[in-house]
Write a structure and sequence with these properties.
Layout (H helix, E strand, L loop, with lengths): L14 H11 L6 E2 L16 H13 L12 H12 L4 H4 L3 E7 H16 L5 E5 L3 H9 L4 E5 L1 E2 L4 E2 L1 H10 L5 E5 L12 H13 L3 E6 L8 H13 L4 E6 L11 E7 L3 H18 L6 H11 L1 H32 L7 H4 L4 E3 L4 H8 L3 E2 L5 E3 L8 H11 L1
Helix pairs in contact: 2-11, 2-12, 3-11, 5-6, 5-10, 7-8, 11-12, 12-15
Bound molecules: pyridoxal-5'-phosphate.
Length: about 400
């Protein structure tokens, strides 16, 4: 007799992990993977930051017992996250209108937020940018929402179709949940200007939309405070506001799964009710978060010396990515002078929508260079050793 499992179909493959599988199977020693979503250093390795190493040495020395954390996570961590995300002098912190729960990476933060919203705004629809991080849609759909796109990327300019985006925001029904990338848009690398953010914030407030800011790359754009500025401006409108943030990239702590969800309420009293419900979502999913990553990040953020070291190391990652953008544009200008790649310099964060077509990406693969079918390349996977090979191959397939 057939079992409950026998009719289950194969789930679709994750498009990015599929590239990794093909890359791993490639026996060419000169293969290059630009399809990844992680920061590599100039040696092509995921770095272990010195600030993390030092914080972990302190934690080993402490030899603390592994008790459960509170449902909302480590208090010192949640406080440090709030100060990083909203600014230490933020009114929402002083007035106790912001609540923060430690989460299992940025993904976990989005999922807590999605489950929480599904409970209290079940009829609302969710809007994500076209295109967006590929997990956004699946995540909100799995929480029970209908997910729509809003206009975002303009392939003809390699930037944002801002008029289209604003028109879509204005047409959304009141109460709709709008997912926005706070900085370093994944996958396009195209961000809004501050003046454009002003207009977005005004429409969201006027039309009673619910902004959900996803900040997975704070510090990879213009700087820690600069990238967080948009969160502060949203918070200044008084809420409601949800913010997911991740330390996967900014601390190079991918596998430790460190992130947080912060929610801004209109009063301290409302905030305490929200926190009680967020805790319920956490409690029924995984009870409470893991200790190590949260303690590591909190140790760095609360020690002046380690914090300075982190800021310097993060600046190093940010600057190296910018250097690779510059080098890519400069070298492509030499090798393919009839093509204009200047836009790559305007894009920010780890990724670039390079404008390469699916056919061109396929042709690159024949050279053992792997990119996403959409033309997304990870600029942080370029380094001084592989960039000439990549430029030559791109020039060849154009
Ligand atoms: N949001 C965006 C836009 C991302 O690009 C990512 C990771 O790639 C995440 C969220 C998830 O981050 P984490 O790995 O911390 O779950």
């Amino acid at each position: 007799t057939p079992s409950v499992f026998s009719a289950i179909e194969m789930a679709p493959r994750d498009p990015i992990l599929g590239i990794t599988e093909a890359f791993n199977a490639d026996t060419n020693p000169g293969k290059i993977n630009l399809g990844v979503g992680v920061y590599y250093d100039d040696n092509g390795k995921v770095p272990l930051l010195a600030c993390v190493k030092k914080a972990e040495a302190i934690l080993i020395e402490q030899s603390a017992p592994r008790t459960y954390l509170p449902i909302e996570g480590l208090a010192a961590y949640d406080k440090a996250v709030q100060e990083l995300v909203f600014g230490a002098d933020s009114a929402v912190i002083q007035e106790k209108r912001a609540v923060t729960v430690q989460a299992i990476g940025g993904t976990g933060a989005l999922k807590i937020g999605a489950d929480f919203l599904q409970r209290f705004a079940p009829g609302a629809q969710v809007y994500i940018s076209d295109p967006s991080w590929e997990n956004h849609r699946a995540l909100f759909e799995s929480a029970g929402f209908k997910v729509n796109n809003y206009t975002y990327y303009d392939p003809s300019t390699h930037g944002v179709n801002f008029a289209g985006m604003l028109a879509d925001l204005k047409a959304m029904p009141a109460g709709s949940i709008v997912l926005l990338h706070a900085c370093c848009h994944n996958p396009t690398g195209a961000d809004l200007t501050q003046a454009e953010w002003d207009q977005v914030i005004a429409v969201i407030a006027a039309n009673n939309l619910v902004p959900f800011l996803d900040m997975a790359y704070q510090g990879f754009g213009a700087g820690i405070a600069e990238d967080g500025a948009v969160v502060r401006r949203f918070a200044a409108t008084g809420g409601p506001l949800l913010v997911s943030n991740s330390f996967s990239k900014s601390f190079s702590l991918y596998g430790e799964r460190v992130g947080a969800l912060s929610v801004v309420a209109s009063s301290a009293e409302e905030a305490s009710r929200l926190l009680s419900q967020l805790k319920r979502v956490v409690r029924t999913n995984y009870s409470n978060p893991p200790v190590h990553g949260g303690k590591t990040v909190a140790t760095v953020l609360t020690s002046p010396e380690l914090r300075q070291l982190w800021e310097d190391e993060l600046a190093g990652m940010r600057v190296r990515i910018k250097e690779m953008r510059d080098a890519l544009v400069k070298k492509l200008k030499e090798k393919a002078p009839s093509h204009d790649f200047e836009f790559v310099r305007q894009q920010v964060g780890m990724f670039s929508y390079s404008g390469l077509t699916k056919q061109q990406v396929d042709a690159l693969r024949a050279e053992s260079i792997y990119a996403v079918d959409t033309g997304r390349i990870c600029v942080a996977a370029l380094n001084s050793t592989n960039i000439d090979k990549v430029v030559d191959a791109i020039a060849k397939v154009l």
